[in-house]
Amino acid sequence: MHEQLINPTLQKFRTEFKEEPEHIFLSPGRINIIGEHVDYSDGFVLPAAIDKYICFAVRKLPQTNLCTIIAKDLGEEYTFDVTKEVKPVQQMWMNYILGVFSQLQNSENQFCGMEIVFSSTIPMGSGLSSSAALECGFAYILNELFYLHLTKKEIAVIGQKSEHTFAGVQCGIMDQFASVFGKEDKVMMLDCHSLEHQYFDAELKGYSLLLFDSCVKHTHLTSGYNERRKDVEHGKKVLWKKFPEVEKFRDFTTTMLDSVKEEMGSVSYKRCLYLLNEIKRVEMAAKAISEGNIEYLGRLLTETHAGLSTEFEVSCDELDFLVEHTLQQEGVLGARMMGGGFGGCSINLIKENKAEEVMQAISEKYFEHFNIQMKVYQVKISDGIKEYNNEYII
Ligand code: GAF
After folding, report:
1. Sequence-ordered list of residues with C-beta below 8 angstroms from that of 321, at least 6 positions apart, any chain
2. In a mutational test of the pocket of ligand 1, which residue from 50, 175, 274, 336 has the highest number of ligand atoms less than 8 Å from its CB?
3. Is 32 exposed, middle or buried (0-12, 13-18, 19+ CB in 10 A)?
4. Is 175 tagged catalytic?
5. How far, in whole angstroms, is CA 259 from its chain's centroid?
6. φ, ψ of residue 267 in degrees (nearest 5)
7. What are the CA-CA distances from residue 71 to residues 68, 170, 171, 298 (Å)?
8. Phi and psi (nearest 5°) for 35?
9. Which listed site, 77, 116, 219, 223, has its alpha carbon 20 to 30 Å from 97?
């Protein structure tokens, strides 16, 4: 991490600002074991923060009102005045940051200028939530530097709202929660209705979770993410009209859903059917992990993929190919696309001593078929956003 991320970020800061940063922060990406697209429908999700980060080098400038942010990997920079109202801009990456800032600009919070360089080992557009790491990372920085007394939950919610308002993506809360609340070696079960969460050991008994990156890039703004949300919102409206007594979406039964199928229309129907089944699968998956039933966990992952591909329709040929061929390999218990979809990674439950072989075989097949070099990430479940201990800075 030093070589690849922290030192180059630090060097860039020194070169650009001719000073030492006062703080280094690390904000992680995430994986999600199961529970896809249910975070905006009162569902449960099983995410975890990973050892891929955005690293921020930061210095406060009390004598100015200007905040300069350098996105090292993109070779871009942006400066804004902390005393003026901020608006969305053309640089998408900056909108995640400005969207956070706009929520915290009020008469109580006194900001001054800052110099920030950030760089990342979270691949962009790969479904590992680099955007949540960016927006929550920036909210965390403001909280620490300007003593805003925000809770972790508030930081996550501010990050999500920044996507809604400045980035135009109607995302759920899972990614921000994972980035803020992640814990080393623990998977989180998050109830997206109450935002209560609990951790449990990710004990996979000789199996590991490997990510295969299809290298098909997507952004949720242009993919189909917002449309899926609209389909689901329509479905919910019809359901609640007929069953107003039901409190949470997850309390609807498939019988209730069937009873409004015609009025809802076939598209919203299949989206809602997928969601209700997926929410149940997450509960079964959590039980399977706690009982050490890894075979069953694998089957649930594979079922999720089928639902995402045929009912929720957020997969793509490349991801379907990866999943189908991975499942044919010896030592594989389950595979599915991960995250919002339309590209990005698959997550695969593979016997540790078979992992190398499977990677090799799938990589070859994928290249042969699509002429794309798939990437493999072997991630470690890690802590959420934190300040990096300065004593290690060299
Ligand atoms: C994206 C969104 F940002 C999340 O909120 C979630 O809906 C996910 O897609 C799908 O589970 O990462």
Report:
1. 365, 366, 369, 370
2. 175
3. buried
4. yes
5. 34
6. -70, -55
7. 10, 24, 23, 38
8. 105, 70
9. 223
Determine contact, residues 104/53, Cβ cutoff 8 Å.
Answer: no
What are the tens digits of pLDDT across the range 76-106? 999 999 999 999 999 999 999 999 999 999 8
DSSP 8-state symbol, 74: G
> What are the residues facing 50 on neighbouring strands?
381
**Centroid of ligand 1 to alpha carbon of 368 (angstroms):** 30
**Ordered alpha helix ranges (H), the chain:** 7-17, 92-104, 130-145, 152-162, 174-181, 225-242, 254-259, 261-264, 266-290, 294-306, 317-327, 355-370
Closest CA to 26 of 52, 48, 47: 52
Q: Is 237 exposed, middle or buried (0-12, 13-18, 19+ CB in 10 A)?
A: exposed
Please indicate whether residue 339, judged by its CB atom, sits closer than 6 Å to ligand 1. Answer: yes
ipTM: 0.99
- Ligand 1: which atom is nearest the Cα of residue 36? 11
Looking up tokens 């300007």 gives: 146
Atom of ligand 1 nearest to the CA of 39: 7
Neighbour tally for 96: CB within 10 Å: 25
69: left (phi over 0), alpha (psi -120 to 50) or beta: beta
- What are the residues facing 201 on neighbouring strands? 186
User: What are the counts of helices (DSSP H) followed by strands (DSSP E) for the chain?
Assistant: 12, 13
Cβ density class 301-321: b for 16+ within 10 Å, e for less: bbbbbebbbebbbbbbebbbb
Half-sphere exposure of 154 (CA within 13 A, CB side): 10
Alpha-carbon span 163 to 169, nearest angstrom = 5
pTM of the model: 0.96
Please tell me the distance between residue 11's alpha carbon and the centre of ligand 1 in angstroms: 34
Q: How far apart, in whole angstroms, are the C-alpha atoms of residue 277 and residue 12?
A: 48
Name the active-site residue from 39, 42, 73, 175.
Answer: 175
